[in-house]
Design brief:
Length: 251
C-alpha cells in the first residue's frame, strides 16, 4: 500500500530524532548522490530509519567506519542482533573501499540473489561487475560427479576463471561456499580483496564463519552464529559503496 505524501510528511516531522550521538550532516557539495535513494521521499525514509536505529541502539562496539555497515544490515531486516554478531577483520573496511575505488574489482557471489539485489547504477559508477555460477550446467554436473555441493563447484569455477583474486566475495546462502573459499586461500593461493561471509543456516553456517574469521591475510566481514542471508551481504556491500563514494567526494 502506498503511503500518501502528506501522511509521510506529517510522520517524518513528528518523529523524534536520534539523540545518542551528535551527527554532522553532509552539505550538498559533499553528500553522496550515486549511492543514495533516487527520490527525496526515499532518501528521507532511509535517513529517518537510520536515525531510529541510532536512537534505539544507543551504544555499539564498532569503529566509525564499521558502524554504517552494521547499521545498514540492521536496516535490511530490522534485527538489532547484528549489533554484536557482526565481526570485522581489522583491514576489512579499508580493503573493501580501496578495491571499489580501484574501479577494477568485481563481486563474486554464491547465489544469483546477491547479484540481483545489488544496485546496477551504484556498481556501474565504480565499474564493477557481478558473477555467480551456481546454476551453470557444468557446475551442476561436476557437483554430482564429485559428490559436492553446487556452491563448492561454483567457487572453484570462479577461481579457475581468475575472478576470485582481487574480488569482493559475497556469500549469503551456502556455508560450503565459504568453507571452499577458505580452502582456496590456503591450498591454491586465492587472494580476494574482501570476503563478506554471511551464510545462513543450521548445518555448518556458524562453523564456516568461525573458520573464515581465523584468516589473517585476507580481510573478512562475518556474522557470528546461524543468522545471515543474501540480503545482509547486499546491505554490507551497499554500505561499502556508500563509504567509497564519500571518500571519492572528500578527495
Amino acid at each position: 500500500m502506498n503511503t500518501p505524501t502528506h501522511l509521510y510528511t506529517r510522520m517524518s516531522t513528528t518523529m523524534p530524532m536520534a539523540t545518542s550521538a551528535p551527527m554532522t550532516m553532509p552539505t550538498p557539495e559533499t553528500a553522496n548522490v550515486i549511492t543514495e535513494q533516487l527520490t527525496a521521499a526515499g532518501r528521507a525514509i532511509e535517513h529517518d530509519s537510520f536515525a531510529v536505529i541510532d536512537r534505539e541502539v544507543l551504544s555499539h562496539p564498532y569503529m566509525p567506519e564499521q558502524w554504517p555497515i552494521v547499521r545498514r544490515m540492521i536496516h535490511a531486516n530490522a534485527d538489532f542482533d547484528f549489533n554484536g554478531l557482526t565481526d570485522f577483520h581489522p583491514q576489512a573496511v579499508e580493503r573493501g573501499v580501496t578495491s571499489i575505488l580501484s574501479r577494477a574489482t568485481r563481486v563474486v557471489a554464491d547465489v544469483e540473489m546477491i547479484c540481483v539485489g545489488l544496485s546496477a547504477p551504484r556498481l556501474g559508477h565504480f565499474g564493477m561487475s557481478t558473477h555467480q555460477f551456481i546454476s551453470d550446467p557444468d557446475v551442476i554436473e561436476q557437483a554430482k560427479a564429485e559428490g559436492t555441493t553446487r556452491a563448492v563447484q561454483a567457487m572453484r569455477k570462479a577461481h579457475r576463471l581468475g575472478l576470485i583474486d582481487g574480488a569482493i566475495v559475497g556469500i549469503g546462502n551456502a556455508p560450503t561456499a565459504l568453507i571452499e573459499i577458505v580452502r582456496l586461500i590456503h591450498e591454491e593461493g586465492a587472494r580476494p580483496a574482501l570476503v563478506v561471509g554471511m551464510p545462513v543456516g543450521f548445518v555448518s553456517a556458524a562453523e564456516s564463519k568461525d573458520l573464515m574469521a581465523l584468516e589473517t591475510d585476507v580481510p573478512w566481514i562475518v556474522i557470528r552464529g546461524r543468522k545471515g542471508g543474501s540480503t545482509l551481504v547486499v546491505a554490507a556491500i551497499h554500505a561499502l559503496l556508500g563509504l567509497a563514494e564519500a571518500r571519492e567526494l572528500a578527495a
